[in-house]
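Changelog excerpt

This revision adds worked examples to the README so contributors can see how folded entries look when concatenated. The first example is reproduced verbatim below.
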Amino acid sequence: MTDLRRAYTNIQSIPFRIRDILTAAIFLYSSLALTAENPNVTPNSPFRVATFNASLHRDTPNGLLQALQQGTLVNNPDPQIANVATIIRKVRPAVILLNEFDYRANSESIIQFKQRYLEMETRPTDQQHFDPVYFPYHFSAPSNTGIPSGVDFNNDLVADGPEDVFGYGSFPGQYGMVLLSQFPIVENQVRTFQKFLWRNMPNARLPTTSNKTDKQNSYYSEKALSVFRLSSKSHWDIPIDINGTTVHLLASHPTPPVFDGPEDRNGQRNHDEIRFWADYIDASKGQYLYDDNGVKGALQDQRRFIILGDLNASPFEGDSTDNPINLLLQHRAVNNDFTPTSKGAIENKPNSKFSPSHTTDWSLRVDYVLPSRLGLRILDGAVFWPSTSEPGYELVKNRETNSDHRLVWLDLDLTNNSP
């Protein structure tokens, strides 16, 4: 695998079309050698894993693609896309989950983003010169956002209103997700849970309303509950192959626990979207889960995993319901010994003892990279949020030309340790 990775590195200066053909050939060959789960490994060089709610969403289905096609990193760039790409080029993760990247079935936006911004050569004299970064593999899948349910979810007697979609969004795929990877994806083991019904989670926190006799009634009708999906976007289990060892990337983007009423429908949903992973990484609790292919069960024990995403929940602040993030941070299988921080977050809210770990410009920690205790070691990590006196501050200075979230990364190493 080392020789294959070196071969890939050596062809990056070749023009796009020829390089793509050679890349495909190299990794088609390497995919034939992918092994099953390997509990015993020899130490590898560290690899960097990141998550970034990049806010690469637009108001129309073609909006992001059109913005990408109108320029490149060096010629007539879109300022926001350019800053997002430059941050990624600077941090240089081997794997990154991008939240709020509008979904297209043909992956055209992903390809354009990689070719026009991540892989584009710049001049050494450019103010923001960072070497290109290449991700031969990516994964994307449909998101529940903007998909009409055909059912009245908000009880306004209309079944096709803006709140009657499976997940908040103006069109199918808005605010979607994409995973970019320098490691092969084990395609035949990928699991998605886009269509898992909320009511099928044991003890689901389905929202209720109270009448004048203080009786609790379901906020959602029986018809609504028969189709209501738990995931506001989706939940993905994406195995990647790192030198013959499988690591499961568990990606999601739960709904914000706000923008609702006293029934707390978004807060309750956010809680259970996060609880999904707490059950999934515990084979004894997650037997009820079923994926979009109808396969039941959770992640098997003794598996390496990394939970990634904008989870829209903070352990100490904010409006989440019953602190769901602690279901992960305090989970016996999750390594939460290291908390990424930044100087920029402290500068953004200097009087808060929690500010070093904030990942948003509205001063909360909601973005996470959480590895398993089994088989992975944390070496380093940070939130990319430079202070005003640090290089790179111009990349995050303005919300209009970046995101309201910050990239979070960890450096990890494969080990043989058990929790």
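The second example, added in the same revision:
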Amino acid sequence: MFAETIKKLERQYEIKRNQADAVFAAEKRATYEKIPELGEIDKAIAKLGIQSAKLSLYASTPEEKEKEIQKLQKEIIELKNKKQEILKKSKINLVPKYSCLKCNDTGYVIKHGMSEMCSCMRQELLNEAYNKSNMNNLKSETFESLDLNLFSNKKNPNRYKSELSPRENMEIIVEIAKKFITNFDKPEQKNLLFTGTTGIGKTYVSSCIANEIIKSGNTVLYQTAPVLLDSVFTYKYNNQNKNLYESLFNVNLLIIDDLGTENLTAAKFSEIFTILNSRLLTNKTKTIISTNFSLEDLSKVYDERILSRIIGHFSICRFFRRRYKIKH
């Protein structure tokens, strides 16, 4: 499956790049027709390039060759600057519009002299293997679109078990989330545990964070606990999918949604502990856990090994707000 998915993504990237190149070629033709001087500059640059290449064959001395090459390079730079001035004056940005500027929609980048998969392609691989539909709404789920008016300003310590109003509490959580994003690459930044009943913003804030982390060039694996653990056992014991299993340990941000809704077995307990503990030991990855359970409830379901990792290495955010009745 892994090899097949890679080939599928490579084909998609090839199509995407070819489309961007075709659009750029059309834009370039239209621009050059409108401003013929640009074409003349390109011809002059090409001619100087040929002259520079010939020097390596026909220059009488190394000193003469170096002097002439520097002269030609200076002329080329002047022509390129002139071209840029014309484009700037005409308010034209004549570059291919690739969706990823790191790999130019090839899916691969050169790092330390070696070719490796770009973060954008690694993210696509994770989406294909794990995330599936969970990533579809990321563009619309942002902090800017978060409506704090959904959270009441009224304090009710008896109802919410807090001296804060739901809105004040949510404002604090948003600040914690934004700080998490800002300090994402810092080892001292703790992971996040979101607790609270359904429909009160946990998944939305998780999506907001995932959105920003992906924009920063990091990878995100986002899945519900039941589906994630089922995938784990599928990938772990299938030699062709070992890379997908290992993604759980090296993906930059792992978001486990709905922890506690999985069918618990000894094997799944062990796998949850292995995932959390391994990620904590690397000190280079972050994890967000979202659950409908309170910390007290989690202590009744999971053993001390798992709970101690959560308490010691996660900042706990409790979500609450008044439920609004739908009028019929």
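Reviewer comment on example two: Residues 118-318 form a domain with the Rossmann fold fold (CATH 3.40.50.300). Residues 38 and 83 are 6 Å apart (CA to CA).
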